[in-house]
Amino acid sequence: MIAIDNVQPLSPESLFDLLKTEFPAYVNEQLGSNLAVEFVHVADIVNISFPEVIDGNAYTIRVGDNSLELTDHTIGGTYNTALLEQRLMEFLTLKAGYAGNDHLASHNTTGLLIAIQ
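The structure corresponding to this sequence follows.
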């Protein structure tokens, strides 16, 4: 699980809307691809799927008042899911705030703390 501080803060509904409207173009531009991306929102959870390359739910984001918790459900396979996770983390960090970690951190150009837990 990766935690990202919800600095903005984003509600589950606003995160779902952001993901639906901006994330597919962002990830496809970053990867030079044309992947289909699907989203499901229920209560404080947003699920993200890439049906062309990963069977089932790929990632779950639990939206809290103070943080977004990203859970990776990908299991091996032939597609490099690390790139998908990296782009998702970048997108969430840009839109919500920063990721925290006990022992590893760096600052980006906007002054937000970024790290992987």
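Confidence is low (pLDDT under 50) at residues 99-117.
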